[in-house]
Amino acid sequence: MTNDIWAKVLAALKSALGANNFSNWIEPLEFAHLTGGVATFNVPTNFIGNYVSQNFGDQIIYHMNKQGEAVQRLQFSVETQARPTPASKPVVRKVAGSDDGSGSPLDARFTFDTFVVGKPNELAHAAARRVAEGGPVTFNPLFLYGGVGLGKTHLMHAIAHELQRRSPELNVLYLSAEQFMYRFITALRERKMMDFKQLFRSVDVLMVDDVQFISGKDSTQEEFFHTFNALVDGQKQIIISADRAPGEIKGLEERIKSRLQCGLVVDLHPTDYELRLGVLQSKVDFYASQYPDLVIAPGVLEFLAHRISTNVRVLEGALTRLFAFASLVGREITLELTQDCLSDVLKASDRKVTVEEIQRKVSEHYAIRLSDMIGPKRVRNYARPRQIAMYLAKHMTNRSLPEIGRRFGGRDHTTVMHGVRRIEELKVLDSQIADDLELLRRALEE
């Protein structure tokens, strides 16, 4: 097999697996030879070979065969002199005293300048800006959490870029929790734990993305806990992200939850209409240079901001597809073209939440029986969850107030109105109710 063919296979794998998986697991492979249907690769460690074989082996074989190579199975050979892998290249700056380098590459697009700020993310943006200014550690760790596509990784990269610009002498290490675990296991296998500890405890700023990945992995959590303590004791900044708050990550040790909660914990709320529209407008400005002849009709961006409310990634991907399609067919981006081009995306975004789903989720959340919540009892233990369920039904379904009332034991629509108003008042005064509403809404939208 020629290098050109392998290069085509690599390009196909990068597209299929994503940039993160590709840089972590595929780039370290070095194609050796293809003999008798067996493709042999040199790998830095047995761990990488085993992981690639189990998780990506079928994909590699498929794409090699697609390029005309008769490959039946893969074989991995550990190099005696392991070459430097792309995953070992420095992120912001090479860690002092380390030949292993550091973590994930940074995305040049993810800066503070390209981050669209709105009410749902303004606190997270302000906190990230403060940390990126450097100087004395004010809150440690900074813990950013929120659902998919709300900007956690964008802010993490933006902090690293800004630190690099302001203080190039700092050792800044950014990586995913999966990479932390991978490096830990590799160090155990190769008996290089002292190198591992030196790498992670000699940084000035440690940034770990998607920390929920280490939940349930006891040995990795143990080492993460000690690393965390060593850096905090040394007045080093730690920045963590996850898909939920520390206390909600199942399988995470209580002592780690406690440590993660001792700094500033900031929630990136789901996007609102104004923020989504701002994101779309910023993307249109970006695409204007690439597609100078394209015209976008009035109302298209507003339509997309209303209809696609799941997350920013889906929204940006829809706009990218729309511009590419309109460019290929040479047509103006009208509302009709948008609906035709994005019919599958729009359909997926139209998932309707039912009143029954809301009732079941709320009763589970408050650990009460569904029959008690919709029944006649008016004690507070049942009345407050009932009002919360009514509020969510009003805002998350297209059911009328009389219809909602009927589903709550035949109550009058004025009772529903009173319950909705009461929750609107309480969510401003009571942070626990506001948090419960956000958690329930997010769970219902999954």
Description:
- The protein has 446 residues and is of the alpha/beta class.
- The chain is 54% helix and 9% strand.
- It has helices spanning 3-17, 19-26, 46-66, 122-132, 152-166, 177-189, 193-201, 218-233, 254-260, 273-288, 300-307, 312-329, 335-341, 343-348, 355-365, 370-374, 380-396, 401-407, 413-429, 431-445; strands at 30-35, 38-43, 73-78, 142-145, 172-176, 205-209, 237-242, 264-267.
- The strands form 2 sheets. It has a 5-stranded parallel β-sheet, with helices on both faces.
- Helix 8 (218-233) links the parallel strand 6 and strand 7.
- The chain is globular.
- Residues 80-102 have low confidence and may be disordered.
How are the secondary structure elements laid out?
Blueprint: H1 3-17, H2 19-26, E1 30-35, E2 38-43, H3 46-66, E3 73-78, H4 122-132, E4 142-145, H5 152-166, E5 172-176, H6 177-189, H7 193-201, E6 205-209, H8 218-233, E7 237-242, H9 254-260, E8 264-267, H10 273-288, H11 300-307, H12 312-329, H13 335-341, H14 343-348, H15 355-365, H16 370-374, H17 380-396, H18 401-407, H19 413-429, H20 431-445
Parallel strand pairs: 2-3, 4-7, 4-8, 5-6, 6-7
Antiparallel strand pairs: 1-2
Helix pairs in contact: 1-2, 1-3, 4-5, 6-7, 10-11, 10-12, 15-17, 17-19, 18-19, 19-20
Helix content: 40-55%
Say how many strands there are: 8
Oligomeric grouping of the chains: single chain
Report the uncertain regions. 80-102
- Report strand order across the widest sheet: 5-6-7-4-8
Largest sheet: 5 strands, parallel
Query: Structural class per helix/strand content?
Result: alpha/beta
- Tally of alpha and pi helices: 20
Percentage of β-strand residues: 5-15%
Overall geometry: globular
Distance between the termini: 45 Å
Order of helices and strands: HHEEHEHEHEHHEHEHEHHHHHHHHHHH
Please state the average pLDDT score: 83
Nearest-angstrom radius of gyration?
A: 25 Å
